[in-house]
Input
Amino acid sequence: MFLSYVKQVTQLLTNFSRLCQKRRLFLKGTGQNGKVLPPKLNRRNAKNTRTLACWVSPKVKAKEVLMLFLSHYLLFPPQRENMVLLREGMCPGLDEDLVRRLRNAQVKTVEDLVSSDMEDLAQKCSGSYQALIAIRRVLLAQHAAFAVSGADLYDELLASTAILSTGNSALDALLDSGVYTGEITELAGGPGSGKTQVCLGTAAHVSHHLRQNVVYVDTTGGLSASRLHQMLRSQTSSDTEQMEALQRISVHRAFDIFSLLDRLYQLGGDGLRQEASGGSAKALIVDSVSAVIAPLLGSRHHEGMHMMSQVALALKTMAKDFNIAVLVTNHVTRSQEGEVRPGLGASWGHVPRVRVLLERLPAVGRPAIRSATLIKSSRRPCFLQAELDLESWSGCERAMSAKRTLDAAVS
Output
């Protein structure tokens, strides 16, 4: 099986050599008639990318050959390696002796067993027909994919989905009651638009009022513990409740894409269930994803897109597998027509289920008011707008602002 696969790869590189000759590019070891004369391959060095790279002349980028090799592996992988091999203890009744007899009968994988005639197989391996039927039934239940009705999916959605309030009534109304678990919600806006303020307010509200654990990943250094504590003090005067709410918020810092991916992978490996005391986390906040992804989307476009897709996959997987609400922030750019839109391009636009654009308002005397526009949603019409009061999470700031206004009017 593997030798035939090596021959296929050799033929692939032969075709690539002919293409290179047409483009006046040459491969080392190219003989007559465009045939490639590769070094001796075996199972060990055939998987070594350095072997493939040194095979190619410096005039030809090794990356091109490697990408061809990987694409061929993805399109035509060895079929036997993708099948589940039968082994002892896989299910009741499948002992070492039966596995050996099945292999002697050329039944080596689960697919071989479930697709075989049980009567004929019982005669070949001198086994019990009833035992083979029972083993086949168990293996089908473990490895087969069964159709699920839409009603069952809807019932599962209702049982697993929760709505977490952000603590701001206007934002909750715009988001159809709040952020949903199992989804990614994005806040996009320029500097000073209030993205971090909304993230801090949501974390404080979820940890104190909803008594749920929150994981906060800071990539910009904008998280302020004193600001978070100030929000909690405006919501409760009890020091004990304030400390309990702070303990439910787990803070992580990641200032580059590799640290962020490493942190997300750690959290995805049951890390969310162990982060905070009192149960698993219900919300994940990343402020912001664009701060670590955008620097990679310049000249190194392909590498940046790959890293961005890894972050997107990790966030989606965590949202679904752990049934948590994911809230991320993004920067904004301007189109050629001058229209403000979220950053990271069209590829990232498919990642969040809900997108909200935050903008400053030029209103005099109302510095904490922001305009929020719903630009993507599967539940509500797009381009709905609302005015957010960023001081709604901090009653003490509102009182101080009113006092300053009164003092200015008196003077």
In short: DSSP finds 18 helices and twelve strands in the chain.
